[in-house]
Amino acid sequence: MQSNTLGDQELALLRFVSSHGPITAGEAFAQYGEPNGLARSTIETVLTRLYKKGFLARTQGGGLYRYQPTMEPHEVIGGLVEQFVEKTLGGSLIPLVNYFVQQGELSYSEVAELQQLLSKLESRRQEKDR
User: Of 12, 38, 39, 103, which has the fewest CB atoms closer than 10 Å, so is most exposed?
Assistant: First the structure.
């Protein structure tokens, strides 16, 4: 994962390109920018930032750049979560889990999924300890 962080607008456009790419700036503007009230120059600027940060690759053909993600969406999200946990939570997931417990924001299916993930984690630890 790149060491660069992503702003809200960058993340939203990266998600769009991930599901619609490869895509030109004009196509991104027509399909994403215009419907969301963004100027074409804003889309071009954000695509260039994402390219410079290493989240997008671009190829030139016919005088236009076509942008595509350099990694899978789950890898981007995983890296962003890692940055959040390290920078904001001091490396501990406990404050995040505690927040959801206190807020009661998790559905039954989310709790079940978390329990399955914890079981996987426990299995890995047991294998590692052997």
Answer: 103
